[in-house]
Amino acid sequence: MLSARRVTLDAVLIEAAAAAGAEVRTQTAVTGLIEDRGRVVGLETKSGELRAPLVVGADGVRSAVARLVGAAKYDQTPAGRLFTWAYFEGAQAEDGHMWLGAIGDHSFLAFPTDAGLFMAAVVPSIERREEVLADRQAAFAGELPHWPELESVLGGAQRVGVSSARADRPRGSDGAPMTTLVPRLISRATTVRMSRPTATAGATSPRT
């Protein structure tokens, strides 16, 4: 496994926080901030107020806390590509390999994840946004033949759920701009060997 799904990672983080003594409250959306002399001292929720000596807005790229305090946006980068992904059962892939490739204007990222699943992403140009969002499944299937080796890995696999697409948020799951998502993922592997694949020769990144 090279990466955990967000649903799995969130559960691990919540359990670790609770084990460390934190009081965990799920399904508790922030509706406002409590301020005292120009300083945030708590949160307003539908369940009531929560006060704390320090409020940390670690709620993602669309942070409600950042919006409520009027935090300025900076270093914004327009999305250049459409990150479209799906999870599969039964993919014929080695557990220690990440697939990363660009063939012409077609880009790919794939790797084994938790629960025996395999995540595969196709990353077409943002110029195809309307086409892809109109039929994500067809767009996903249409990209795979451009990397036959990756397509063969998914040949006998069954997709779990639907294909997802992100066109309006050029950032990764950790808040990093999409342009740095791949390097950050690669940096987590012990050893990475990469080459540019062609239509007849794929490239994988083994972990040794």
Explain the overall architecture.
About 25% of the residues lie in helices and about 25% in strands. The strands form 2 sheets. Strands 8-4-7-6-5-9 form a 6-stranded antiparallel beta sheet, covered by helices on one side. It folds into 2 domains: about 20-70, no CATH class; about 85-205, D-Amino Acid Oxidase, Chain A, domain 2 (2-Layer Sandwich). The two termini are about 15 Å apart. The relative contact order is 0.17. It has about 210 residues and is α+β, with helices and mostly antiparallel strands.
Salient structural properties:
6 helices, 3-stranded antiparallel beta sheet, 208 residues, disordered C terminus, 23% helix, 2 domains, alpha+beta, D-Amino Acid Oxidase, Chain A, domain 2
* Low-confidence region ranges: 169-208
Give the distance, in angstroms, between the N- and C-terminal Cα atoms: 13 Å
The structural class is alpha+beta
Element-by-element helix/strand order: HEEEHEEEEHHHEHE
Count of folded domains: 2
Secondary structure: helix percent: 10-25%
* Major sheet details: 6 strands, antiparallel
How much β-strand is present in the residues?
25-35%
The CATH topology of the largest domain comes to D-Amino Acid Oxidase, Chain A, domain 2
Radius of gyration: 20 Å
As laid out across the biggest beta sheet, the strand order is: 8-4-7-6-5-9
